[in-house]
Design goal:
Number of strands: 6
CATH architecture: 2-Layer Sandwich
Oligomer: single chain
Subcellular location: Cytoplasm
Order of helices and strands: EEEEHEHEHH
Number of helices: 4
CATH class: Alpha Beta
InterPro entries: RNaseH-like_sf (IPR012337), YqgF (IPR005227), YqgF/RNaseH-like_dom (IPR006641), YqgF/RNaseH-like_dom_sf (IPR037027)
Strand content: 15-25%
Function: Could be a nuclease involved in processing of the 5'-end of pre-16S rRNA.
Shape: globular
Largest sheet: 6 strands, mixed
Keywords: Cytoplasm, Hydrolase, Nuclease, Ribosome biogenesis
GO molecular function, one term: nuclease activity
CATH superfamily: YqgF/RNase H-like domain
Number of domains: 1
């Protein structure tokens, strides 16, 4: 099954793929200009890769972000299965992973690595 995960933020949406076995690769993050543009880009990404299931990072701590995330996912009008999965600390873990490798920039790399971590956790829990 082809899986994708997204880590939805207010400025960027991190994206990761798992097309075969349990190999997860981060993709170029989607920069958010507005929610409709971002939703259209996520839909196009999912269609391009023929994704069968979307895993959405979901914060347990913030009800406001939970509401925003669910609203954004509703904008996607998806016909594939969607699963919400705990994302706690994924962004901090992603930042730790890239420290020293690249100069930290707000280009979306951390967001997509966070999406990769979310998808890896999801896959590990499914086994």
């Amino acid at each position: 099954m082809k899986l994708a995960s997204i880590d939805i933020g207010l400025k960027r949406i991190g994206v990761a793929l798992c097309l075969a076995s349990n190999i997860v690769t981060p993709q170029v993050a989607i920069l958010r200009k507005n929610r409709n543009q971002a939703a259209n880009e996520v839909k196009a990404f999912l269609k391009e890769w023929e994704i069968e299931k979307l895993i959405v990072g979901y914060p347990s701590a913030s009800e406001e972000m939970q509401r925003r995330i669910k609203h954004f996912v509703n904008l996607l009008e998806l016909e594939i299965e969607v699963a919400y999965f705990e994302e706690n600390m994924s962004s901090i873990e992603a930042e730790d992973l890239i420290k020293g490798d690249i100069k930290y920039k707000r280009d979306g790399r951390v967001d997509s690595i966070a999406a990769k971590i979310i998808l890896e956790r999801y896959l590990a829990k499914k086994q």
